[in-house]
Amino acid sequence: MLDAAVKALSQMISPPMRSILWRSIGLALVLITVLAIGLQRLLSWFATHGEVWLEGLLGPSWHSSLEVLAWIVSIAAGFGVVFGGVFLMPAITSLVASLFVDDVADIVEREHYPAERPGVALPFSQAIFEGVKTALLTILIYLAALPLVLLAGAGFLIFFLAAAWLLGREYFELAAMRFRSPEEAKAMRRDHAATIFTAGLFIAAFVSIPVVNLATPIFGMAFMVHMHKRLSGSRPELIEPARSVR
Q1: What is the pTM of this model?
Q2: CA–CA distances in Å: residue 71 to residues 67, 76, 78, 87, 155
Q3: So where does this one cross the membrane (predicted)?
Q4: Shortest CA distance to 46 belongs to which of 76, 73, 79, 84?
Q5: Please, are residues 94 and 131 in contact by the beta-carbon 8 Å criterion?
Q6: How confident is the model at residue 9 (pLDDT cuts 50, 70, 90)?
């Protein structure tokens, strides 16, 4: 597993990967800026007006609980775009990864597995669906853990473990679906759940590093291509006949 991570890191800055890397970083920066500003404005609205609206909806008995929630949200809103950027980065990288999955995987497979059958590109709609689904699930879990982050340090551990599970799951399934049906890819992920979660810890650590985490889609996808190959076993089919039928 460590060898797979090292290979993914070393290939990130290789000439064939640089164009994808810069496009991935550029798109991530645009998305993170837009969504972070949106999140900050949403939190600011809730801190000032949302409490009254929710109390009218839920009833006076919720007044104390909503006051605490509004206090928590007002602190979060104070962090502004910076908080939003950190909070949303795993979700953003999940979405960006779905756009570059096949570009990255093709390069990794050609360089490291030239004697094996190359994968088949995922339909664009399917790749986007997987990315959006993981991004929304990430945001949902992080929102649930947000009060724990602001009130207790355990929330940061929950963030990290949730990122490891979510990102490991998505990147592995994207890599596996180039060779398997979605059902088979999910079944394989479940069969190797512990290994894939451990691999997800590498990606979660990478996405936790400011600035460097903009390259998470490249690292995560390359890393999981290697992991899928290792868990699948060797399939030494010749490239040229396989490519001729694609």
Answers
A1: 0.73
A2: 6, 9, 11, 18, 17
A3: 20-48, 68-89, 139-167, 196-225
A4: 73
A5: yes
A6: confident
